[in-house]
Write a structure and sequence with these properties.
Belongs to the 4-hydroxybenzoyl-CoA thioesterase family. InterPro entries: 4-hydroxybenzoyl-CoA_TE, HotDog_dom_sf, YbgC/YbaW. Its EC number is 3.1.2.-. This is Thioesterase family protein. By secondary structure, the protein is α+β, with helices and mostly antiparallel strands. It contains four helices and seven strands. It has a single domain, classed as Thiol Ester Dehydrase, Chain A (Roll). The strands form two sheets. It has a five-stranded antiparallel β-sheet with strand order 1-4-5-6-3. The chain has a two-stranded antiparallel ribbon with strand order 2-7. Strand 5 and strand 6 form a beta hairpin.
Length: 141
């Protein structure tokens, strides 16, 4: 299983009135982590879009554990939790610089045709990408 890591320098604009990272920013960081994982595995999401496909989020869950603040460096760890014919679940940890877990999360995605939003299997669109996900997922289905 491959675990990707991406560091995020927390900007002032990402914090709320309490001085902690606003909760919605974590969703942006999850996307950054997913893009890094896909890149690490040798693929590009833009290629899917260019070929007429999208991978929308159909579920997201985040558990907040320890607040992050402006000026800190967060590390987003991302992996493939599970991958099946029509769904991919990514797992995440967002860490403080000392390794303390700030948040854990999961997102569930499907692959659809851009023109009609009908689901399609990644194995039909890009068999090598599908094989890489199967090889690197945490949970064997």
């Amino acid at each position: 299983m491959h675990i990707s890591e991406k560091q995020i320098e927390i900007r002032y604009a990402e914090t709320d009135q309490m001085g902690v990272v606003y909760h919605a920013n974590y969703i942006i960081w999850l996307e950054i982590g997913r893009a890094q994982l896909i890149h690490d595995l040798g693929f590009a999401y833009t290629k899917l879009e260019d070929e007429g496909y999208l991978s929308p989020v159909i579920d997201v869950s985040i558990q907040y554990k320890a607040a992050l603040r402006y000026g800190q460096i967060a590390t987003v760890r991302t992996w493939i939790e599970s991958h099946s014919r029509l769904r991919t679940t990514y797992g995440y940890e967002v860490l403080h610089e000392d390794g303390t877990v700030a948040a854990t999360a999961k997102t569930v995605h499907t692959l659809v045709r851009k023109d009609n939003f009908r689901p399609i299997s990644l194995s039909k669109v890009d068999p090598a990408w599908d094989a890489a996900y199967i090889e690197n997922m945490r949970v064997q289905e």
